[in-house]
Amino acid sequence: MALRGSLRASRALLRSPGPPARGLCSRPPAFGFLFDVDGVLVRGSQPVPAARRAFQRLADSGGRLRVPVVFLTNAGNCLRSAKARELSHAVGLQVSPEQVVLSHSPLQLFSQFHQRYMLVAGQGPVEENAYNLGFKHVVTIEALRKAYPLLDMVDLSRRPKQLPPPTTGFPTIEGVILFGEPVRWETSLQLITDVLLSNGNPGAELQEVPYPHLPILACNMDLLWMAEAKMPRFGHGTFLLCLESIYKKVTGRELKYEALIGKPSPVTYRYAQLLIQQQAEKQGCKAPIQRLYAVGDNPMSDVYGANLYNNYLKSARHSQAQAGLKRSPQAASAQAEVSLELRSDCSSSVESCESILVCTGVYRHSVPEGTEAQTGERVFHGHRDFCFEPSLLQPSHIVQDVDDAVQLAFEKENWS
């Protein structure tokens, strides 16, 4: 499977933290923060007012973070450097690209696909992102459409007026990367389906449907996300739902994923944890990081993901791999494989990952009395490959905004 060995690779990839910045930790924290972005720190292009207050608490007088922080977002239509600049403006502090985990960031670990010809779908700098992640042969939806103009037929204005000559020399597609929701859904849905049905040769006549189909790596499963509009907007999870439904309707078979990356995938949280530990070393903090606080606005991606990862951490800590595998809901086989690696890895110092839900984004209910959460989530918005387990949608705490989340964590840690 595609995830085999990826966690071991991540440890080697992040082993060299660089020289420590001395003097930043008068009392080394034993905890770190995983901050969601949309709905927590920003709403569309507008910063959430509480974001700067929160980071004033997190920084020292010189504007340097006193606690390790990773920005864990399911956004993926930009470069890490661009997202870091956006976050620097939102929180009022310098954010480095190394602190940003985009939905596709863990694909850097999937070296077994880096030499294949991969079709990439999404928007923004998808080609540059793919190359930055280590992929060597990248084919965009637009390049495929130009090579095979007869495939894109929904928009009447884009249909060729004359029969084009046959395409020659175009490479056979060997896999698909779904970075995020595209602009023209009908074009991407059609061409991706063509590639899967033709085993990577969409110009060929369909003889029989190959199954299993080509490997698919999908990033960002969010059904909805929160921008400036009053109601949530469709996310990449909605696009995946369309693709899965079309493939099932056409072939009678289930679309399978080699890997699902981004929250709530455990491999994404593992990757973020390694970055947290790397930051702690850079800050000169010798105390091990034992607790993570995951702050988000979406019960399905942020809360579910943090709670699922917390279950894995507990199982690994108590060396109950088989018993834990039966108790915890699992995703597709690739995700189950991640869970087994996590459960067998007892070398990590991190013991827990607590979820804190804020009310400035997708989840907008009033804060109830006390901090125990009852989100009232009745409709499962998660991806079909993740089982519906209501307890995983219940955050450890509900607070009004990200500033309250930071204060809560400080109080729990007796740290100021």
Automatic annotation (TrEMBL):
Single GO biological process annotation from the record: glycerophospholipid biosynthetic process
Entry-linked InterPro entries: CDP-alcohol_PTase-I (IPR050324), HAD-like_sf (IPR036412), HAD-SF_hydro_IIA (IPR006357), HAD-SF_hydro_IIA_CECR5 (IPR006353), HAD_sf (IPR023214)
Protein name: Haloacid dehalogenase-like hydrolase domain-containing 5
One cellular-component annotation, GO: mitochondrion
UniProt entry keywords in alphabetical sequence: Hydrolase, Signal
Protein family: Belongs to the HAD-like hydrolase superfamily.
Gene Ontology molecular function: any one: hydrolase activity
Cited Pfam families: Hydrolase_6 (PF13344)
